[in-house]
Amino acid sequence: MGPPRPLVRVATTLAFCAALTVPGPGPLSHAQSTASAASAGAEGDRPWTDRSLSPSDRADLLLNAMTLDEKVRMLHGTIGSPVPTTGYIAPIRRLGVPGVTMTDGPAGVRNGQKATELPAPVAQAASFDTEVAREYGRTVGSEARARGQSQVFGPGTNIQRVPVNGRNFEYFSEDPYLSGSMAGADTVGIQSQGVIATVKHFAANNQETDRMTVSAEIGERALHEIYGTPFDLAVRQGEPGSVMCSYNRVNTVYACSNAHTLRTMLRSRFGFEGYVVSDYPSTHATSDLAAGLNVELPLSFHVNPLSVRAALHRGDITKEDVDRRVREVLTVLFRFGLFERDGTATSPIDEAAGNDAAQRVAEQSAVLLKNDDDALPLGDATSRIAVIGAAAADSAQGGGSSKVDPLSEDRALDAIKERAGGSAHVTYHDGCDTKAAAEAARSADVALVFAHDKEEEGSDRSGLSLPGNQDELISKVAAANSRTAVVLQTGGPVLMPWLPQVASVLETWYPGARGGAATARLLWGDVNPSGKLPQTFPAAEDEVPARTRAQYPGVDGTAHYSEGIDVGYRWYDKTDTKPLFPFGHGLSYSDFTYSGLRLEKNSGGPDDPVKLSFTVTNNGKRAGSEAAQVYVSKPDTEADSPPRELGGFRKVSLGSGETERVQVSVAPRQLSFWDTETDGFRVRKGEYGVAVGPSSRSLPLGASYQVRE
Ligand code: BGC
């Protein structure tokens, strides 16, 4: 099969009834790649093959040997690779420069071949556990390597600004610190396999409506604090070899032509040393090379020998620009050892290992939103079970370039039958006929309704309601059986008009190749739910931070980010708006209590971290994990900062009755704000609040901390 194309919208397989009605790891960091280089000497007249030299010295030597046309070839993606890819930089055989094979994407390898379908990337953030993100990345990286890919287009790191964004399932969170921490860990995981990660889509690519043209009009403060920070943290923590610039414009200038975002922010302020690839046809001029673009990918036609010569002649770009961009690409290729190995070599994918990883992520990221009277977990004696909804028989996946062709996929229905045991009576109803489904529920001990939405690249959701007849279905089933549990498979928030009627709601995102097994284990309590919401679930369609047409989807080609830094829970808290479920919310079958908050010091300078510790105790009967969250309230809250912002988190696993003293260090960056006067992050002096607890709206512990000059 040929490679998948970037722009086609892929329909998900699930119908809504209303419609019917590796090999060894590669180098991790710049430092490591230099240190680990063997002292192999140069081959003949190719001094850049000397592995004792640093990647950048080798790049300089190679650059000296290249003609202008050869340099330009490094800056343009093509097709025709020896293995199926999504993008490719052709080799330069005269100089021994390897081809660079590239593939989507954030949820698993998508190069036209099968791979492990991991849960939707948002699940990583819902785990509130960077080790989960690292494992996720390792899985993607090792399978990419097995498929002969040198580079993966992921992780997707954009902020979930509007809950209807069609690509929210591919992104992490509405919170920049959580997003950046996950992106950094995912990147480390991918690159631990010797595969280049591509943090995308920079910058402010927060909606699919008019995504190729819309201008995100953002003030500098929000651009840095909210939209830049996830990329900044990903770059600092993960050292990605690559970043992808986005389709949209930022303050009128296209993201791939934007010297402010690409050079000033990404390179100078964040310290990015890799290369920038375009999001396919997202380049607009040869001079994008001067603005900071390195490689335009297929479907873009602004970088070729003729156009580059003409741009040099006109003075739109200089020879130094071309050299700089090529050097940046070559340095990464040397860093990842691509001159020393055949990046296109393939090997079998370890399918069992991939599926195990997918299941672990699904189990760690499911969020128990509601559980009245401990209706879940199901007891071993539950014998009559009505399973309802098409997603139980064919789990949902997001569409577009993150849609993976799975090596295998399980079904929740089968896993439920197996877990319930041979003596149980499990019925299945697809839910298209709501009356019949309710009848099936009436005679059961418990009704499990599977509901799903449809997020996909290329368009936004038309609203926050579950599509088709699903709200009616849940409502009718719940009316027939008070023990109704809803299992959601969604990429983000949905409205729940039926919430008061149902006993339990379990959000499983798009749960991946072993989502069925994970869901059954969660429902029976073989694994205790421990995910937390990385995005606020709004109570109503219009109770969201970007409520006007000017804000979203924008007017006359411009989306006005006039909510500034008040994105997600920052806005709900500032405006005292009650969401359906707040950021950070997630229940457990256990009962955790928090006590004994202690700050190591009660005051410090602007460059000091705030070190704190507190105790979490599992008072429940079951073992479980709890993602403890630390929020910071900055001084002058009323003037311009939101009431609280996530400053740290730590997930702990505790047996029944166990207690752990948890340490968290809040970095100065989490105390800072973007100062437009000095163009930098600054920590104000004054009194800071530090609050700790199980969600952004449940913070039992608090202390104050003083920042001195
Ligand atoms: C998407 C990218 C993707 C690329 C290649 C684009 O349309 O926005 O996320 O990596 O296609 O498939």
Topology at a glance:
Elements: H1 17-20, H2 30-35, H3 55-65, H4 68-73, E1 87-89, E2 100-104, H5 122-126, H6 130-146, E3 151-153, H7 176-191, E4 196-202, E5 215-217, H8 220-238, E6 242-245, E7 249-250, E8 253-254, H9 259-269, E9 275-278, H10 288-291, H11 305-314, H12 319-335, H13 351-365, E10 367-371, E11 384-388, H14 412-420, E12 425-429, H15 434-442, E13 446-452, H16 470-480, E14 484-489, E15 504-507, H17 515-524, E16 558-560, H18 569-574, E17 592-599, E18 603-604, E19 610-618, E20 624-633, E21 645-654, E22 659-666, E23 673-675, E24 680-682, E25 686-693, E26 701-707
Parallel strand pairs: 2-3, 3-4, 4-6, 5-7, 5-16, 6-9, 11-12, 11-13, 13-14, 14-15, 18-26
Antiparallel strand pairs: 1-2, 7-8, 10-15, 17-19, 19-22, 20-21, 20-25, 23-24, 25-26
Helix pairs in contact: 3-12, 6-7, 6-13, 7-8, 13-17, 14-17, 15-16
The protein binds beta-D-glucopyranose.
Primary descriptors:
TIM Barrel; 709 residues; alpha/beta; Immunoglobulin-like; binds beta-D-glucopyranose; 26 strands; 19% strand; 18 helices; Rossmann fold; six-stranded mixed beta sheet
